[in-house]
Amino acid sequence: MTLDDSDIPFLMDLQNYHDIKNSRLIEHIDRAGVVIYDRQQTMAEAQAEK
Question: How many domains is the chain built from?
Answer without folding.
Answer: 1
